[in-house]
Amino acid sequence: MEIINSLNNLKIKETVHLRKSGARREQGLMIIDGKREILAAIKAKMEIIRLFYCPELIKEGNGTMSDLLGISPDKVVETSQSAFLKICYKENPDGFLAVAKRPDLSLSRVKIAAQPLVVVLEAVEKPGNLGAIIRSSYAAGVDAIIINDNQTDIYSPNTIRASEGLIFNQTIATATVEETVGWLNRHKIKSFAAATSAKQDYWQADFKGGTALVFGSEADGLTRKWLKAAGQSLKIPMRQGVDSLNVSVSAALLIFEAKRQRRR
Question: Cβ distance 165 to 129 under 8 Å?
Answer without folding.
Answer: no
